[in-house]
Every structure is written in structure tokens, then in C-alpha cells.
Amino acid sequence: MDEIARDYTADLLGSSSLAALLTALVSLVLVANRGTWPLLRNVITIAHEGGHAVIALLSGRKLNGIRLHSDTSGLTVSTGKPTGPGMVFTLIAGYPAVPLLGLGGAWLVAADRAQLMLWISIGLLVLMLLAIRNAYGALSVLITGGALFAVSWYAPPAWQAVCCALVSWFLLIGGLRPLGELRSKRARGRAPDSDADQLARLTGLPGTAWLLLWLLVGLASLLVGGALLLQMPQL
């Protein structure tokens, strides 16, 4: 029986297109399900706040710290000029960071570099951990990094590719749901200090325009990343 199970698993993983479709379906369920989304949304928040932090540093701002909260919200604090391109790009960066990371992951998976994707992800999480300023945030980053490390260390190459495809799909699909949540909150007047509203005050462009921009980035990333993942090398 064990040999039959191993043969079945090998046959399943051997079909790269089937593996890509299955990981896409699993990711969609994880994002859409009310039971799994509140927990796994922490991964989306980590990527979102990481995007703010990276662009803040690249634009010359001083990064004061990152906080991740149990309600899956987050806050990245940086010091610098309160107006101007640096602040604008820092605010823009959060929402696109999630699908763009998914796109980068999809490219690495398609290039048969799943292990490289895992180690890059772990390295970025280690750097982010240095900027975390609360216990829950540190725990979230450690758990996420620990899971990726376990896959990189213990899983065979085929399963590493499957796990990386799953993570990439999750970022590509999961990066879209917060935009819908933000739209609903803004419609009810419950997000006056959202990234979109802060950008509206800084640039004069309405918050809806920023939401549309982020949506276009997310959809384009999903289309391109999905096409790449469907071209996964034979496992």
C-alpha cells in the first residue's frame, strides 16, 4: 500500500500543469474561506508592510519600525519629509508589493529555482524581523519563516516546487482580497487614514483612483504570474 501511495504521489506531482492548477485551487479556497483567511491574512500583511518598509528606505526615509497586529492590520513607521515623492511612493508600495512578490515567486518557480525562492523569502523575513517592534509581529514573522525553512530543509525538490507554487498563487490571489475589503470600509467611512485616503490628501487624486491602480497591478500580476506557473518545469 505504501508503495502504491508513493507511486500515486509521484504521478500526481509529475504533471506540472496539474500541480499548478491544484495549487491555484487550494490558494483560492484559502483566500475565499472565512475560516482560513483571518489567519493566513497575516502573510499578506507581512508582504504589505514589507513593501512600505523597502520603499521608505529606498526613498531616503528612516525606518522606525513595523508592527503587525492580531487583527491582521499592520503599521510601518518612517521618519522623513511628510510630503513629496518619498512619502507618496512609500504609501503606494504596500498593496502592489503583495502581488508583485507573487509574480516574482512565479517567475522563480517557472525557472525551476524554487529553493532560491525559499531562501530569498527567508532572508527577507530575517531582515524584516529586525524592524519588528511588537511581540505578535515577531511571532508572525518567525512562524512564517520557520515554515519556509522547514520546506527548504526537509522537503524534496518536487515538493519544494509545489509549496512555492502554492505560496505564489496565494500572494497573487490573496493580494486582491484586501482591495475589496478596503473599498467596503471606505464606502462605510471606516478607513479615513487608509493608504488610499492619505494618498488622496497628498496628491489630490481621489482614493478610488489609487484603488483602481492597485487593482490593475494585482490583476496584471495574476495573469502573468498564473501563466508562468502553468509553465512549471516537469516535477
Automatic annotation (TrEMBL):
The keyword Kinase does not apply. InterPro entries: Peptidase_M50B-like (IPR049500). Keywords: Membrane, Transmembrane, Transmembrane helix. The keyword Membrane applies. Pfam families: Peptidase_M50B. The chain crosses the membrane at residues 12-32, 88-110, 116-132, 159-180, 209-230. It comes from the Bacteria. This is M50 family metallopeptidase. It comes from Saccharopolyspora montiporae. The lineage of its organism: Bacteria, Bacillati, Actinomycetota, Actinomycetes, Pseudonocardiales.
